[in-house]
Write a structure and sequence with these properties.
CATH architecture: 3-Layer(aba) Sandwich
Strand order of the largest sheet: 3-2-1-4-5-6
Helix content: 40-55%
Number of strands: 6
Number of helices: 7
Distance between the termini: 20 Å
Low-confidence stretches: none
Oligomer: single chain
Order of helices and strands: HEHHEHHEHEHEE
Largest sheet: 6 strands, mixed
Mean pLDDT: 91
Strand content: 15-25%
CATH topology: Rossmann fold
Shape: globular
CATH superfamily: 5'-nuclease
CATH class: Alpha Beta
Number of domains: 1
Radius of gyration: 14 Å
Length: 134
C-alpha cells in the first residue's frame, strides 16, 4: 500500500469531512499543519470522505465551501477507504499509526482512546495537536 512506503520517511495525515469544511469556513489553511507537525508528512484524502463531500446535504453557504474543498483536495493523494467514514478512519489510523484531522468529538475521543494523534481546530482560529506523534 502507498502508506507503507511512506512510513519510513513521512507520516500520513488523513482528513475527515468536517475538518475540511471547517478549515475553509474559518479561513484556516491546510498549510498550517506545518506549524503543528514537526515531522515530514503527507496528506491523504480518504475516498469515502470525498464521496461524502460530494453527496452530503448542505446549506447554500456550506455548499459553496464544498465546491472549493473539492477543487482544493484534488491535489492530494487518495486513500481508498470504504464504508462508514469515522469507522474506516479509526481502523486505518489504528493499523498505520497516522495522524487524523477531525473536529468530530466522538471520533476524536475514539482516536485518543487508542493513542492516535489528532489535529483539530481550536477557537475557530488555529490548529492544535492532541497526542504524541511517534
Amino acid at each position: 500500500m502507498e502508506t507503507d512506503r511512506l512510513r519510513s520517511s513521512r507520516i500520513a495525515v488523513i482528513f475527515d469531512t468536517n475538518f475540511i469544511l471547517s478549515c475553509l469556513k474559518f479561513g484556516i489553511s491546510f498549510e498550517d499543519l506545518d506549524l503543528v507537525i514537526e515531522k515530514k508528512f503527507e496528506i491523504f484524502m480518504p475516498s469515502n470522505v470525498i464521496y461524502e463531500l460530494k453527496n452530503i446535504d448542505l446549506n447554500n453557504e456550506d455548499s459553496i465551501l464544498r465546491n472549493i474543498a473539492l477543487k482544493l483536495i484534488d491535489k492530494y493523494k487518495i486513500l481508498e477507504l470504504k464504508g462508514n467514514v469515522d469507522t474506516s478512519i479509526l481502523s486505518f489510523a489504528e493499523k498505520k499509526r497516522c495522524i487524523v484531522c477531525t473536529n468530530d468529538k466522538k471520533l476524536r475521543h475514539a482516536l485518543r482512546k487508542k493513542s492516535i494523534p489528532v489535529i483539530f481546530i481550536r477557537n475557530r482560529k488555529y490548529l492544535e495537536l492532541d497526542g504524541i506523534i511517534l
